[in-house]
Write a structure and sequence with these properties.
This protein is mainly alpha-helical. Strand 9 and strand 10 form a beta hairpin. Helix 13 packs parallel to helix 15. It is elongated and about 95 Å long. The chain starts with a helix and ends with a helix. About 5% of the residues have low confidence.
Length: 682
């Protein structure tokens, strides 16, 4: 990329270049308090932070470092320029979309196209000064190694090497993992409280000591009667996940999720300004090459004032709505015809077909920018995963055992008796389901990634060429060229799977936390491992991806906000209708404060046998059922109103942009205006 080409395209794609050094420190508060920061590490060659301005060739002298053509543009900016040229160069009919390297790759004209890594990641031997390390070696030594798990990630170095989009993902992942620490502590305390209740709970003692006092109705048509005392261990295990502490945990996690997202918006705005992406989506982002080629008309951009390709919004809305309907119907069909285990296997088998369909639908919708295109593709994938991964827990939490009927009048579907919860209740089944899906899925993913990494390392051991030595039969070996060595690495397939795994996990620890207090702890442990695995993949196992700029984490933030609101409602209904918290509370204040006799209160009698339910001998609901139903509905309304009200207060009290960042943004705008004004005068 010659200097003239760099200057032309830097202006064309609105690259930002430095005006003045901006000094800031992430540990400023601790340093003011004279406190050591145990998570801080001294990473060599920290990239400087600048006040910046959009590049203009006729104002070149106003920019820092413009006297050195070799270093003025960063390597990642050179990659952006080269990819811009490759992505927008037509090779055939423009009207047919025959434009750019991506189309040529999809048609297999070329095998691959990728920027090169900057040398080897392994540290030099003999050991040299860290100041002489390349950026890739710095990332390997101070980020990808397992010994760095207690340290802050070198986000500025990640951004310097991989670009803003990947750096923002790791910033969000680190921020999310740090916020899991208080959630894990509270969840663990609630679990320990449940352990204590196992040995002190009065109803549990009644069940275990009842002997043959409670003879229960058969659980199926061919089953025999059984004693309620036979489920002693299961009943006690259920108390681990079903106790009064889960109400506090549900409120805490709902407010935790709201506060987490509010503070992430603040952190994201600070990083976005620090990395010069604050105005990327509104002003700097250009239309996709495919959109430019296929758009039926042009229209003046109201922000930039430039004539740009345009696709009518009403047509795009109709296409988007149609695409989403196809996705929902497909996901619903798959979720309805399979059990949980078969469902998971079917998702894994059909995921590639489904993702291909999502790509086709998203291209058909004609989104203007790459970020909008990716957001709509992500939304389709998330709907598919959300319906399928959460359908089984939702069924257990809110539908299983609700429509069973009672002895002598069981409800059936197609002649089959409706499924009832196990002897220990639905909540313990839900906890088991969550542990299997959440922990099992994460373990499988991590093991799969390690096996994939191990296999790739066997394959990527440098291929060597045999070269005949003159005058003999011996051969010597020479390593392949850098581009051939990088071609042996795995192709980076983007951040979709990484974000999706974490957001699905975020849903599990918020939507169903009332059923599994240890979920945040398992998530924390997983994420500590995940950060290092992802770092190793990007530094040592993946080809270097094309640098992409980003202002934030995109549609993932609205998705997490949706999950947070769903979590409030889900936990309210879970505590009210699935947990035994309200029945115990009702019995405590109307019958016996010690809960003595509570087990008998929850059982109904049919002839000489008993079954769970608040019915009389004729199968009609007792008055207590309607009293409790009114309490349950009132609890749902009060719970969600209180949590949403407090969440709204948190939203109002925590501004999205920190005051110091607002000042820096104004300072940067002022400096850019002064630079332009002085140049016009000159």
């Amino acid at each position: 990329a010659p200097w003239s080409v760099l200057c032309y395209y830097a202006e064309e794609i609105n690259l930002r270049v430095p005006l003045q050094v901006n000094t800031s420190s992430s540990s400023a508060m601790l340093s003011r308090l004279s406190l050591p920061n145990p998570m801080l590490q001294d990473v060599p060659n920290p990239p400087p932070c600048f006040y910046t301005c959009e590049f203009r060739t006729n104002k070149l002298q106003r920019f820092l470092g413009s006297d050195n053509e070799e270093t003025f543009f960063k390597t990642t900016q050179r990659h952006q320029v080269l990819y811009e040229i490759l992505a927008r160069t037509p090779y055939g009919s423009v009207s047919k979309g025959q434009v750019g390297i991506d189309r040529l790759l999809s048609e297999q004209v070329f095998t691959d196209a990728y920027p090169l890594h900057e040398g080897r990641f392994k540290l030099p031997t003999p050991q040299m000064s860290p100041q002489s390390f390349s950026v890739r070696q710095i990332l390997y030594a101070y980020w990808a190694k397992w010994s760095c798990w207690t340290r802050y990630q070198p986000l500025d170095h990640i951004r310097e090497y991989f670009g803003e989009k990947i750096a923002l993902y790791f910033a969000w992942l680190g921020f999310y993992t740090a916020w899991l620490v208080p959630a894990s502590l509270v969840g663990t305390l609630i679990f320990l409280f449940g352990l204590w209740l196992m040995f002190t709970d009065v109803p549990a003692k009644e069940v275990c000591e009842s002997g043959g006092s409670f003879v229960m109705c058969p659980t199926c048509n061919i089953c025999s009667t059984w004693n309620y005392s036979s489920i002693c261990l299961t009943y006690k295990a259920g108390i681990l996940f079903d106790n009064g502490g889960t109400v506090f945990l549900s409120v805490f996690m709902s407010l935790w999720a709201i506060t987490f997202l509010e503070y992430w918006k603040r952190t994201c705005s600070a990083l976005s300004h620090r990395w010069n992406c604050s105005e990327f989506e509104d002003i700097e982002e250009r239309p996709r090459p495919e959109f430019t080629a296929m758009a039926p008309m042009t229209m003046r951009n109201p922000v930039t004032g430039l004539e740009e390709p345009y696709f009518p919004e009403n047509q795009r809305f109709n296409r988007t709505l149609s695409g989403c309907m196809v996705i929902v119907v497909m996901a619903g069909k798959i979720a309805s015809i399979t059990s949980s285990v078969l469902n998971l296997l079917l998702i894994l088998m059909l995921s590639r077909v489904y993702f291909a369909l999502a790509h086709i639908l998203t291209r058909w919708e004609m989104h203007r920018t790459q970020n909008k295109y990716e957001d709509m593709f992500i939304l389709k994938v998330f709907i598919f995963q959300f319906v399928n991964f959460y359908s089984s827990p939702v069924y257990i939490a809110f539908f299983k055992g609700r429509f069973v009927g009672y002895p002598g009048n069981y409800n059936t579907l197609f002649g089959v008796r409706n499924e009832d919860c196990g002897a220990g209740g639905c909540l313990i089944e839900l906890a088991q389901e969550l542990l299997v899906i959440m922990v099992g899925k994460q373990l499988i993913n991590n093991i799969q990634e390690k096996l994939k990494s191990w296999w790739q390392k066997r394959r990527m051991s440098p291929r060597l060429r045999e070269v005949k030595v003159e005058g003999g039969e011996e051969t010597q070996r020479a390593e392949v060229s850098p581009w051939e060595a990088d071609h042996q690495l795995l192709e980076c397939e983007g951040l979709l799977s990484e974000y999706l795994e974490m957001v699905i996990q975020f849903g599990f620890i918020t939507i169903f936390v009332a059923a599994c207090p240890l979920a945040p702890l398992f998530a924390l442990i997983n994420n500590w491992v995940e950060i290092r695995l992802d770092a190793q993949k990007f530094v040592t196992e993946y080809r270097r991806p094309v640098v992409e700029r980003a202002q934030d984490i995109g549609i993932w933030l609205p998705i997490m906000q949706f999950i947070t609101h769903a979590a409030v409602l889900t936990n309210a209904f879970l505590i009210a209708f699935t947990s035994s918290f309200l029945p115990r509370l009702y019995y405590r204040y109307t019958r016996d404060r010690t809960l003595s006799g509570f087990v008998n209160f929850t059982l109904s009698r049919r002839s000489v046998f008993q079954y769970l339910g608040l019915r009389d001998e004729n199968g009609e609901y007792r008055p207590e059922y309607f009293h409790l139903l009114a309490i349950q509905l009132s609890f749902v309304i009060i719970f969600e109103h209180v949590v949403f009200f407090i969440g709204r207060l948190i939203d109002m009290m925590v501004p999205d942009i920190p005051e110091e960042v607002e000042i820096k943004i104004k300072r940067e705008h002022y400096m850019a205006k002064e630079a332009l004004a002085e140049n016009r005068v000159q």
